[in-house]
Amino acid sequence: MNAPRPLAVVTGASSGIGYELAKRCADHGCDLIIAADTSLTEAAQVLRDLGADVVAVRADLSTIDGVDQLYAAVSQAGRPVDYLLANAGHGLGHAFLDQDFAQARHVIDTNITGTIYLLHLIGRDMRGREQGRILLTGSIAGLMPGSFQAVYNGTKAFIDSFSFALRDELKDSGVTVTCLMPGPTDTAFFERAGMTDTQVGQAKKDDPADVARTGFEAMMRGEGDVVHGLKNKVQAAAAAVTPQSALARQHRKMAEPGSGD
Question: What's the predicted TM-score (pTM) here?
Answer without folding.
Answer: 0.95
